[in-house]
Model the fold of this input.
Amino acid sequence: MFDSGSSLNISKSSLITIVEKIISETDGAELYCADSSPIRKLIPYREKNGVRVEFKNGVIEVFVSVLMKKGLDIPIVCEAMQNSIKRAVQEMTNAVVNKVNIKLIDCIA
Done:
């Protein structure tokens, strides 16, 4: 559980749920699921679930693996997802989000 010096405690699974919801609401993007991908052996084990959350030195770091539809302006969509994730997690936890890393695994039709 994360404790940012306040009375708030939040689990990693709660933060992952927040991130998954944001990705599901992003047009043209979907969370990467290693079990359904032919390239699953190339992805490190710790990232196979699509979302990883780490607590380091009192701040939160989020790592997300996604698939995106072809034809999207990937930098713009990724930046929008990063901003949405950071804003949502900070508003719900009152904790600082230091990083939101988005890894594009593949493009889909």
